[in-house]
Every structure is written in C-alpha cells, then in structure tokens.
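Q: what sequence does this backbone want?
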C-alpha cells in the first residue's frame, strides 16, 4: 500500500485465508481510503477501483451491491467480461456504466 501512495489510485483486490479471491466490502474500502488519507501527500485525486460482475443483476440487486461501495469511497467499477461471449460483452458495453442503471 505504501507504493500506491505515489499513484493516482489502486485496484482493490482481496484474497481470503484459503488463497481465493473474495469480494471487497465497504469496510475494506473505508480502510483503504483512511490509509490513503492519512499517509498520502499528493494533492491529486485518488481513485479506488473495483472489479467484478454485475451485468446479470437486476436494478435492486445492483443498488444493494454497488451503492454501499460507492458510499464508502469506490470511484470506478471494471466489469469482468473475461468469459463473456462477444455478443454479451457488446451488449453490456452498450448499456453503459452500472452507475447509469442505479
């Protein structure tokens, strides 16, 4: 985390005790933000980027998942389309950012 203090942001990822990826929680975002605010000397904005999959969620599920993360300080979402078909990826991109659906 000391290295990200020199950067414009961080892509937050979390690995559980068994070595498997876990979802980032609003508390995790708050911890990241508090650390950055307490230790960063640069005045440029700092982004907290998350990635995952929300393409298949309906509007209430999307709100339940993303709003607490946004309120905690997350600033970007990268939709994980790695295993999507080309058609599914194009459709998701056409829908725009998840924030437009909230």
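A:
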């Amino acid at each position: 985390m000391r290295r990200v203090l020199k950067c414009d942001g961080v892509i937050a990822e979390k690995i559980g005790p068994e070595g498997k990826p876990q979802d980032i929680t609003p508390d995790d975002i708050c911890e990241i933000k508090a650390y950055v605010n307490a230790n960063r000397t640069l005045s440029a904005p700092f982004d907290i980027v998350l990635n995952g999959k929300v393409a298949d969620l309906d509007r209430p599920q999307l709100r339940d998942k993303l709003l607490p993360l946004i309120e905690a300080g997350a600033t970007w979402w990268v939709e994980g389309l790695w295993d999507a078909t080309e058609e599914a990826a194009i459709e998701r991109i056409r829908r725009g950012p998840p924030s437009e659906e909230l």
